[in-house]
Amino acid sequence: MSRKGLSKDWGVIEQIFREGEILTLSLSDGKGAYGVPLNYGYSDGKIYIHSSGRGRKYEALTQGTEVCFSIVSTFALKTHEKPCKWGSSFMSAVGFGQPRLIDDEKEKLNALSVIMDQYGEGKWDFDPAGVKIAAVFEIPVDRATARVRD
After folding, report:
1. CATH architecture of 6-149
2. Is residue 88 scored above 80 in pLDDT?
């Protein structure tokens, strides 16, 4: 780990991916760049997200370009009597990958289960009509870094 807390240690990165609750997805399209917070799931080097089958996010995800995402797994504010001495401790990761729309129904159900497993364990009984209209994406993590600050 470097002086600034940057790390390429895959174990640290995966810990953050597994413990996080919100992923901020950064996209770019013809209208410009934007970010959107999402629920997600992580398994075996892949991020899974879902969307409706239309709209700006869907269009950006299906254009075949790389996306960026960030996840914060822990955060604590450190206060001080002097404003310039305030700070924070945290664990965060930034990753990159190219999204792929999942068409296969069995694969889609598995991906949706991974998303649900991020937040709790169970045997998930998905509504078939909802599964059919959901756009589910897999983002293989091509590269990522973590930052850990105590």
Report:
1. Roll (2.30)
2. no
